[in-house]
Amino acid sequence: MTTNTTAIDERTHERKFVRTFFTTPTAVEGGDDSAKMLESAIQLRGMQAPDVWVPDNEDATAPNMREEGVENIVDVLSKHGAEFPGEIHPRVVWHRDDPGTRYRGFRHMLELTDPENGAVEHLDGFVIPEVGDIDDWKKADEFFTIIEDEHDLEEGSLKMSVIIESGAAELAMGKLREEMGKPTNNLQRLFLLVDGEVDYTKDMRAITPTGGLPKWSELRHNTSRAASAAGLIAVDGPYDDIRDVEGYHERMTDNQSKGMLGIWSLTPGQVVEANRAPLPPREGYWLFDADGREVELEREGGRQVYTGDRVSLREDGDEYVLSVGGDELGIDAEELHEELLDLLAYVPSLDDIVDSMEEFEAAKEAGKGAIAMTQSATVVIDGIDVEISRDRMWDEATYQALQTPIALFQDVYENRPDQHGDLAELYDESVLERAMNVGN
Amino acid sequence: MTTNTTAIDERTHERKFVRTFFTTPTAVEGGDDSAKMLESAIQLRGMQAPDVWVPDNEDATAPNMREEGVENIVDVLSKHGAEFPGEIHPRVVWHRDDPGTRYRGFRHMLELTDPENGAVEHLDGFVIPEVGDIDDWKKADEFFTIIEDEHDLEEGSLKMSVIIESGAAELAMGKLREEMGKPTNNLQRLFLLVDGEVDYTKDMRAITPTGGLPKWSELRHNTSRAASAAGLIAVDGPYDDIRDVEGYHERMTDNQSKGMLGIWSLTPGQVVEANRAPLPPREGYWLFDADGREVELEREGGRQVYTGDRVSLREDGDEYVLSVGGDELGIDAEELHEELLDLLAYVPSLDDIVDSMEEFEAAKEAGKGAIAMTQSATVVIDGIDVEISRDRMWDEATYQALQTPIALFQDVYENRPDQHGDLAELYDESVLERAMNVGN
Amino acid sequence: MTTNTTAIDERTHERKFVRTFFTTPTAVEGGDDSAKMLESAIQLRGMQAPDVWVPDNEDATAPNMREEGVENIVDVLSKHGAEFPGEIHPRVVWHRDDPGTRYRGFRHMLELTDPENGAVEHLDGFVIPEVGDIDDWKKADEFFTIIEDEHDLEEGSLKMSVIIESGAAELAMGKLREEMGKPTNNLQRLFLLVDGEVDYTKDMRAITPTGGLPKWSELRHNTSRAASAAGLIAVDGPYDDIRDVEGYHERMTDNQSKGMLGIWSLTPGQVVEANRAPLPPREGYWLFDADGREVELEREGGRQVYTGDRVSLREDGDEYVLSVGGDELGIDAEELHEELLDLLAYVPSLDDIVDSMEEFEAAKEAGKGAIAMTQSATVVIDGIDVEISRDRMWDEATYQALQTPIALFQDVYENRPDQHGDLAELYDESVLERAMNVGN
Q: Does position B7 have pLDDT exceeding 60, yes or no?
């Protein structure tokens, strides 16, 4: 969503990152309050407001309420759309196997973009669920093109996002790069590739004993890869145990390691978690692999203290006895250092990342192609202090690979002024400024 | 296999699920008893009989016995084929790199389908091993077409299944959906995509220290995805440690979470395990994550009891001390509930699944799009009772994703009357009836 | 590299396996010693010398030193190239998004292959980094063709290896088999597919909390699969913690299970590790799964002794009590045998593998298609001896799948006479001879 409300073709910014994809039912049964959830969602601001908001006229809304849902979207957007800080992409109905559903989705899009309704200037695009192979994607794209023509919108100005919830759609993602250049489509309008694991599980006919969703690691990899190859943005599907904040974070960490930096959110609470998750922490900390369980060391003064029982350490004359799980290891000081290095990893703060980048940039300016970055700490196990130190070589490639969290931070800071307050609470002012200047 | 034996083109049913793919040598050296294993296999019934039976004229049969193998298949099928309860798909020889082997396979197929031999009306198709890229698949398909023409069989009536045992074949699976529609082939005859991990390991030149097979997770995902995209059925390869029933079950559970519901069986004992594996259990039970090891809680009356030593619990005034592995956690009652929820998962019975589906169907009829399903239990650790309760939201997508085991059950019940007795032993009669009616 | 130095088109051998890909900076700042690292690397021999040596005129060399780097490569190759025991493939600059970089890489290749410079007869090909989709690969291939034409080299004689460091390049690998046959390219020159995980991480925009590289399992699978489908060789990227020998080995073991037998090496020390890693051990040993941690049993006489504390065993009347982690199991002798079988795995020596292959070959000659191979041991836990025995069926497919380490060994022995001394130290002379004769 742009704050320029004069015309849809004057939108200037393009988000390069999307953290959050928040769906809201468009209508609920029982009369006047039907649009209440939409009205509440569009007025969210700051960390509670998503990067992409999706009035959901498909699964979240009962089939018999979807015409009313379209009216509600029009009402709420024409009233509040100008002030919404994120982008707005309603989800309409669609199904690769059902022409009636596809035509219904087309009529909904046509209505939502009718200039007389006053909603289109706040609309950034549509989300098309249940797509099939690439020819099915082209059918949806063709409807976008017809609508743009019909309503005098610039061709290609409405963005198209899809939900990947079939094996056919997963395979179609491998062809986007070559198909997007073809003269008979406008697939350049593609924006988000969103995994929809519940329906995907149905389409793949997968079974788990508990009925829980499979992890679908390969699907997420392939979605992230397609986004990379075709200049799009990958978003993971809903995490439906909304009370399980820890589980949601583990999922996001796993997604991030695949290059999938966005995730579906079902509640404003999940939006807050998902908006924050890809941002580096305020304070760095050490992770310790305690016999297979990863724990965060406690900082006491400048020392990093392990307080669990899974690993123990004692001195025995000149040697050390390190016990991990049931296994005892008699080793000297140097071997102890090596063993602990293997078990320790440092999670850098925003400050640390900016420091390292600035250091590398200065070295580059001075004609150096690679420098060693040192991490060190005093780690305490059972009262024994051990000095730990590790070098990592940074070259241009390292520098660029580690730049992603900064690029994301900068994208957020530029495009989401409503989150400046939250960022100022999360980080020191001086870091914010340096983070905006590094890497450019 | 149809029970209608008058003509191959009158076959009416199509299996939508295949649990078992059972191979049998077609000939063994030493004379008169050469066909004994075939004769024994074709007379299997009930849970011991596979969904797809494969007289194996390739790897299971010595190279110099394969002409005799063809004769044996003809003899055994013409004698016993009409009564066999599953489908019959002999495996013939084929190799992407060897035209002589391909021509030999063609001659065997031609012989097996000769109407004068009386076997063809019991034949559902052939299994082609060692296929390469999609053009190699088309060569095999062309031989099927020629054979159908030569023997006045309906074009496309013989099904073709392939063994995926090369990187080229794995890639070919990504093209099936677009290739199957082309006018110059009959690839619509494709039926099973079967992974063959031993030869695949050779083709990929993989090495493991112990010589054990790699897991090949990506291959299995890609096979399942291709089956989903092209309307086929995915089957995993042989599990050759036939005494390791637990390992076979773990493999099947992993496969099922990928949408690969079928598996190769080497013995009637493995057939029984594989026929039963995707069916829900008679009684539901709770799984408990005991410090990384998944254990089944013991039911005592209505309580679920953990009896291991990895997790312990004691009261300490108003608080609880939960100990997992070496780590102690002092928490209040609510936190204890949360912690245990994370560690517990319920495996529903067939009865439970049918209940939930009926409940959702009733809610839908009453105009509700989503309802909360509650799972609750009394869990006992070290003599302390803890009440556990969890809600899960069901909407149409959840309902459909969880319908797969029921759809499989219904497919089995309809197509395998010889297993009705086994199913009646596994489940109560009333559940069977409700399970056949739900979801339609 | 061939030892025939008369002309590039007389090269006769083709390596079928590549274990090591060793990069060296081509120039360092500060004058006369600029080529010192190249001179030192090209004189490596034996296990310290890689199968493929890569004078790296891209990331390892500062941007302003790359013209000097080209001169240095020419000097060093013309002086020492004839004696180098591996192949030589310089890496030049290239980028899918930058025509200036691509043209610069072309000029460097043109210079390096100029017959007047005396380096080309020691050059086997070039490594092209940062490739994009298949059309980008074709641009590079076209430059190779032009260079061959310009310098009167045989068309296709210069091999082309690529670094896979973008999602687009990962997808391109799926098309090699069909593209390599086309009349307007010479992509048959392709040789190595090398993953470059640092830049790939950037291109995929992946984030990990610690800044460590993600595992990228799917990428490595897809690279190995493409190598298999297109007759190429898969190589993993650099492992940059050069002190972490154990971690390097774990990575190689994981790679090998995917069919990726080669790996990048950053130091001669890593080259030694990587040259040895895919070779079977001199002595076989037993692995024991001690409550989730894999340990090697200690051989004492003919017995295999477990000395850790994670698993314990005691007799209790007729029964045994086996304790794994916190869980106790009261079982009889047969159950104990089964439990231990599940926890034990044997890693065969080169001698063991040759024995098994010879045994199978003899059986095949005697007309047997499958035989049982037995592994047995006396395992000692807490002073209690347990006899363990397991059969594995070998058929032709097993035989061929397990032949890969032997084929690799034979390739090394034939093509790297400079490593004969190292191999003679690693193995008994008699095994070497038998290993060269088995499987042919």
A: no
**pLDDT for residue C191:** 97
C326 touches chain B (CB under 8 A): yes
How many angstroms separate the CA of residue B69 from the nearest CA in chain A? 36
Q: Give the integer Cα–Cα distance in Å for C65 and C71.
A: 10
Residue located via tokens 């020392």? A303
Least confident piece of the model among A134-143, B88-97, C233-242:
C233-242
Q: Is A225 on the interface with C (CB under 8 A)?
A: yes
CA distance A433 to C318: 74
A partners (3+ CB pairs within 8 A) are B, C
> Is B256 an interface residue toward A (CB < 8 Å)?
yes
> A12 pLDDT band (50/70/90 cuts)?
very low
Nearest Cα residue to A134 out of A195, A177, A86, A102: A177
How many Å is the maximal CA-CA distance in chain B? 86
ipTM: 0.93
Helix, strand or coil for residue C378? strand
Distance CA C26, CA C68 (A): 8
**Residue A69 near residue A142 (C-beta atoms within 8 A):** no
Instruction: Name beta bridge partners: B55.
Output: B24
B209 touches chain C (CB under 8 A): yes
CA B270 to CA A15: how far, in whole Å? 54
H helix count then E strand count, chain C = 16, 18
CA distance C244 to C273: 11
Beta bridge mates, B404: none
Average pLDDT in the C143-154 region? 98
A1: pLDDT confidence band, cut at 50, 70 and 90? very low
How many CB atoms are closer than 10 A to CB C188?
Answer: 15
User: Do the beta carbons of residue A139 and residue A204 sit within 8 Å?
Assistant: no
DSSP A34: G
pLDDT at C11: 37
Q: Which of A182, A364, A221, A380 has its CA nearest to residue A298? A: A380
pLDDT digits (tens, 9 = 90+) for A200-214: 999 999 999 999 999
pLDDT value at residue B344: 94
Size of interface A-B (CB pairs under 8 A): 115
Q: How confident is the model at residue B398 (pLDDT cuts 50, 70, 90)?
A: confident
CA C369 to the chain's CA centroid: 32
- CA neighbor of B233 nearest in space, from B182, B306, B171, B159: B159
In the predicted structure, residue A241 carries a pLDDT above the cut 90:
no
From the number of C-beta atoms within 10 Å of its C-beta (0-12, 13-18, 19+), residue C183 rates as exposed
Give the DSSP per-residue string, B279-321: SPPSS-EEEEEETTEEEEPEEETTEEEE--SSEEEEEETTEEE
Going through A318-425 in order, the beta strands assigned E by DSSP cover 319-324, 327-331, 344-347, 371-381, 384-394
Query: Phi and psi (nearest 5°) for B244?
Result: -90, 75
Distance in angstroms (rounded) separating the CA atoms of residues A55 and A36: 12
Task: Report phi then psi at C300, rounded to 5.
Answer: -130, 105
Please tell me the distance from the alpha carbon of residue B35 to that of residue C343, in angstroms, as a whole number.
39
DSSP code per residue over A47-62 = GGS-SEEEEE-STTS-
The DSSP result for B132-189, as a single string, is -SHHHHHHHHHHHHHHHHHTTPPTT-SEEEEEE-SHHHHHHGGGHHHHTT-TT--GGG
Q: Which of A168, A205, A241 sits opposite B261 (nearest CB)?
A: A205
Alpha helix locations (H) across C113-235? 134-150, 167-172, 176-179, 197-204, 217-230
Q: For chain C, what percentages of helix, strand and coil (3-state, to nearest 5) are there? A: 45, 20, 35
Q: Residue B72, Cα to own-chain centre: how many angstroms?
A: 28
Q: How many CA atoms lie within 13 A of A53 on its CB side?
A: 32
Q: Are strands C319-324 and C311-316 parallel, antiparallel or unpaired?
A: antiparallel
CA proximity to B119, closest of B150, B90, B149: B90
Instruction: Decide if B398 contacts A200 (C-beta within 8 A).
Output: no
